[in-house]
Write the structure tokens for this entry.
Amino acid sequence: MKIISNKLVFIMFFVIIGGFLFVDHSPAQTPGNAVPAPSNVRGAQYPQITPDSRAIFRIKAPEAQKVQLDLAKKYDMVKDSEGVWQVTTDSLTEGFHYYSLIIDGVAVADPASETFYGMGRMASGIEVPFAGDDYYAVKDVPHGEIRIKRYYSTVLKEWRQFYIYTPPGYNTNINEKYPVLYILHGGGEDERGWATQGKTDLILDNLIAAKKAAPMLIVMPDGNVKASGFGENTLQLFAEELKQSLIPFVEKNYRAKTDAQNRALAGLSMGGLQTLYAGINNIDLFAYLGVFSSGWIQPMQKELADAQYVLMQKNTDTINSNLKQFWLAMGGKEDIAWNNCQLLIAKLDEMKIKYTYSEYPGGHTWPVWRNNLLNFAPLLFQ
Amino acid sequence: MKIISNKLVFIMFFVIIGGFLFVDHSPAQTPGNAVPAPSNVRGAQYPQITPDSRAIFRIKAPEAQKVQLDLAKKYDMVKDSEGVWQVTTDSLTEGFHYYSLIIDGVAVADPASETFYGMGRMASGIEVPFAGDDYYAVKDVPHGEIRIKRYYSTVLKEWRQFYIYTPPGYNTNINEKYPVLYILHGGGEDERGWATQGKTDLILDNLIAAKKAAPMLIVMPDGNVKASGFGENTLQLFAEELKQSLIPFVEKNYRAKTDAQNRALAGLSMGGLQTLYAGINNIDLFAYLGVFSSGWIQPMQKELADAQYVLMQKNTDTINSNLKQFWLAMGGKEDIAWNNCQLLIAKLDEMKIKYTYSEYPGGHTWPVWRNNLLNFAPLLFQ
């Protein structure tokens, strides 16, 4: 049959999907070698990334008075005669960045990009390719699965869900049991964070294929509990949920090894605090702790931190003998948790608690946490 | 320790998650019995649903000149003295609706709602509870899993992914093989559609628990192929991908029964056309076909449709004997595919091809397709 005009079919039949009209799917017209970002929705020509890692954003908004891009730094966008606003950013750092468009004062997601639950809402994300991003590329290696599983929390008395990575071979090696890493997202995020922003499955698929990490299950829980804030009541409630509800459910429903030597706990930012709290209060439960871009918030959490240090001081020997890794990572001095982490380290030194400190530049951002997973996972269960 | 002010901690530490500021998390102030919609992002107080199924939308946009809600019908929102725009809709029909906010002429997602890939972008969705929505409620029944699986398409020569529902018991009944339903999304959607908008896992968990449907695998492929439009080349390419790449991969990697009696294919709208094309061209492959809100697009696809009818006419006996169900469903007269479907039915009658026709009001929308799955799944593999 003759080729049917895509546009005409849409108008006649798929009236419902009128949203296509708001995303520019036409071929790129920008000179130079800029290419659509990998994080664009299917077929969207913008945002684009230039060879020197600048990003070009566009949106058609003839009636808007002012349009800005908020990508850590705010950029004013400029309108052309057709009502299309555009801006080219400075050179961007590697990997994933949350961003918003601010249309006449309202911060919204860019219709041309995928959205990610972060900052307490569905926010736009842009991926900036870089020379070292091969570690989370989709390669011709065996691939595990990401699974979404619902469970009833006996602690929180509600249905919740977690994401779980099962490594290649999990479906066929039916007599094999696997060690488990529980990994926690940050504030304003949820159980989707490590699976999408974190690229957990690809990082592990590649590490396992290269024999750099042991095949393991990675559980990505929802770290949000009903109580609000970062007070001890919230941390305690999450620790109870983890210990009494989630871990028993995982160990009952997946082929998990169930001793401390085969259990690890890690988290970023808010998840790092949850790891510190749940990990130190249950030192018999985990042989590995990973604290990414975190540390007790000073002076806000001074009392809580002091109580934790008293507990640690009492159990220094147990902590040092039980933990095979107490791994602290920081996104360089530009990480907003830098000071808190340095205070934590000073205390650990004072108490002679063993730890490994690691730094990767990039601040309090997902590119750093992806790199943290890349470096932490190989230390586990070996 | 003392309770820490959530706000203060955010300001001091989680500066990065400034997006919270744009979503109203404060307690609802509207009089009456309106409650936050189930589709809101965590903690967002608006949109709200009233007891008579109206929805109240709010957004703070003091600098905007005009804000509208686009929810099939367009509503003008009204600004109060604090710059908050609000509107209360007419009474809404049941279940899931895509919607946009139009801020000074730009259609964007509402920061207060979850987003869903539909209309070719990440669009807002709102869930309207209704008396009969129990069939996709999260109940205290055994729950299956939704898995996300990457695979290399030998037809399309690229890495792709599908979602797959594995029923309760799949992980423990390791010697059991399962029948498979392949179910296809509509135009402007992707492999996420049936898992999120469609609530496939909950519908099946509940049906299986009530012994109304056989435990089955449900594969939710990405129906988009590189070629654009709804021409035969596109339909043919997808059919090849399905037959030569996806089905063999699924049958190799999951415990699937591999005969036609245990294979079903269904789809909505564009997915219905793919089902008609791939199903009739591979009549030995599937014992069940489900065509939801679809039918050859007239007059656009006349030539293609005529060729298909010639093929059907030649194989009437085979079609009638091979297909245990040829199930056509329509969202009432308000479905934009109504006419096309009636033309298809007339042709089937003329050719004496057996089929089952089913109607559920609601138009060309997800509430209809959820209901289609509810009614189609029990007909399969019995």
Observations:
- Residues 135-379 of chain B form a domain with the Rossmann fold fold (CATH 3.40.50.1820).
- Chain B touches chain A through 96 residues (CB under 8 Å).
- The radius of gyration of chain B is 23 Å.
